[in-house]
């Protein structure tokens, strides 16, 4: 991946293009170990020390991102609890139970209903403060970084294993309403980092496309909810799927085949799509926006026509595309795609009446 300048490591290495802030690397994040039940920094957001957290977070930001003017991606990976009370299911239900226990000690005479509602409100209020104020701090100290939380937004469209009903991939109305409540998060983020990680059960399945495109669409939807001038960028977490089990290892032969797959198929494909996106932006959007599907749920893709373009590789390993777009290539592009303008730009999807039939070199 070095040809795409995207090589980073999750190790404690400062000054990377992509900085991952895990729970133990940014401030004093309160959480409970689900296995040992040990509490860290109070365990619950409402039992933590927000000022102490922000002070420590400031030090951590300066360590991991030494330069105040270097651009990059700053991803906060806090997965122990979720800021919406009802989303803390499974092992995360410990946050609900402990919150109610704390409230019981403070309000002995209250009814269970009042305890539950107050515990929920208190948890969500302080959880919001931790997340929002951490984002604000990060953007104040390192404004050239794009700050956001990993896995936000989520679509929870994991019902692709249910054989009893057709799978659409769409986020439920309940999930979308809950995501609407997180408008404060989208408004304080300069980037969104949803995940489209696939499981092996989706191999060669149309469900994979439905799963991915609806998760991306939900990110695009919530990005505009806060109504601000600055719409957060969207960076989608993706990965090659080797196995669903961390304990399962590939054979040497499988690793060699995987290497060939990445270098001979995936990398040239990424180059093709990237070049097609640049071409579409320059022609259809006049370089002032990016091309997006007219129908997000359609199977339309930005691909260079293999009959008219070639993907080539430079000596330094970087790719470029060479060729001439035919009138049909361009009309197909205009029929299936429209433009989303860049921040501060006015644009509209428009195919010029006359486009020089010249050979193009598109660097990646």
Features:
364 residues, alpha/beta, 37% helix, Aldolase_TIM, Hyaluronidase, glycosidase
Note down, in words, how this protein is organized.
With 364 residues, the protein is α/β, with parallel strands linked by helices. The protein is 37% helix and 13% strand. It has helices at residues 50-64, 93-106, 112-141, 173-181, 183-188, 206-223, 252-284, 327-336, and strands spanning 18-22, 31-32, 39-40, 72-77, 145-149, 191-192, 233-234, 289-293, 309-313, 319-323, 337-341, 360-363. It has a 3-stranded parallel sheet, with helices on one face. Strands 9-10-12 form a 3-stranded antiparallel sheet, with helices on one face. The mean pLDDT is 94. It catalyses: Random hydrolysis of (1->4)-linkages between N-acetyl-beta-D-glucosamine and D-glucuronate residues in hyaluronate.
Question: Can you summarize this structure?
Answer:
The chain has 364 residues and is α/β, with parallel strands linked by helices. The protein has helices at residues 50-64, 93-106, 112-141, 173-181, 183-188, 206-223, 252-284, 327-336; strands at 18-22, 31-32, 39-40, 72-77, 145-149, 191-192, 233-234, 289-293, 309-313, 319-323, 337-341, 360-363.
Instruction: Classify the beta-strand content into a percent band.
Output: 5-15%
Question: Biggest sheet: strands, sense, closure?
Answer: 3 strands, parallel
Q: How much helical structure, as a percent, in the residues? A: 25-40%
| H/E element sequence | EEEHEHHEHHEHEHEEEHEE
Derived structural class: alpha/beta
Averaged pLDDT, please? 94
Anisotropy-based shape: globular
Find the count of extended strands (DSSP E, 2+ residues): 12
Rg for CA atoms:
23 Å
| Total helical segments | 8
Describe the strand arrangement of the main beta sheet, using strand numbers: 1-4-5
| Spans of at least 5 consecutive residues with low confidence | none
Report how far the terminal alpha carbons are from each other. 13 Å
């Amino acid at each position: 991946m070095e040809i795409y300048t995207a090589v980073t490591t999750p190790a404690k290495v400062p000054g990377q293009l992509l900085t991952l802030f895990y729970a133990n690397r940014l401030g004093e994040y309160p959480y409970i170990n689900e296995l040992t039940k040990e509490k860290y920094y109070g365990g619950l957001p409402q039992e933590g020390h927000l000022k102490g957290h922000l002070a420590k977070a400031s030090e951590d930001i300066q360590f991991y991102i030494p330069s105040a003017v270097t651009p990059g991606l700053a991803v906060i990976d806090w997965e122990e609890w979720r800021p919406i009370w009802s989303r803390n299911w499974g092992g995360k239900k410990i946050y609900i139970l402990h919150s109610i226990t704390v409230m019981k000690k403070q309000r002995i005479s209250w009814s269970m209903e009042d305890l539950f509602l107050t515990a929920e409100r208190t948890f969500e209020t302080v959880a919001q403060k931790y997340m929002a104020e951490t984002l604000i701090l990060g953007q104040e100290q390192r404004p050239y970084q794009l700050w956001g939380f990993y896995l936000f937004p989520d679509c929870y469209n994991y019902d692709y294993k249910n054989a009893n009903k057709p799978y659409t991939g769409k986020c439920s109305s309940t999930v979308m309403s809950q995501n609407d409540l997180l408008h404060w998060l989208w408004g304080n983020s300069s980037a969104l980092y949803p995940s489209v990680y696939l499981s092996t059960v989706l191999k060669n399945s149309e469900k994979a496309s439905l799963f991915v495109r609806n998760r991306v669409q939900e990110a695009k939807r919530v990005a505009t909810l806060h109504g601000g001038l600055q719409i957060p960028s969207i960076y989608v977490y993706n990965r090659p799927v080797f196995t669903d089990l961390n304990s399962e290892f590939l054979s040497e032969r499988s690793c060699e085949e995987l290497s060939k797959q990445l270098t001979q198929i995936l990398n040239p494909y990424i180059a093709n799509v990237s070049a097609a996106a640049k071409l579409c932006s320059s022609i259809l959007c006049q370089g002032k926006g990016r091309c997006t599907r007219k129908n997000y749920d359609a199977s339309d893709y930005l691909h260079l026509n293999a009959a008219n373009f070639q993907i080539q590789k430079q000596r330094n390993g970087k790719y470029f595309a060479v060729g001439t777009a035919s009138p049909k290539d361009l009309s197909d592009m205009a029929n299936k795609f429209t433009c989303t303008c860049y921040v501060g730009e006015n644009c509209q999807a428009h195919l010029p009446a006359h486009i020089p039939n010249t050979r193009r070199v598109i660097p990646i």
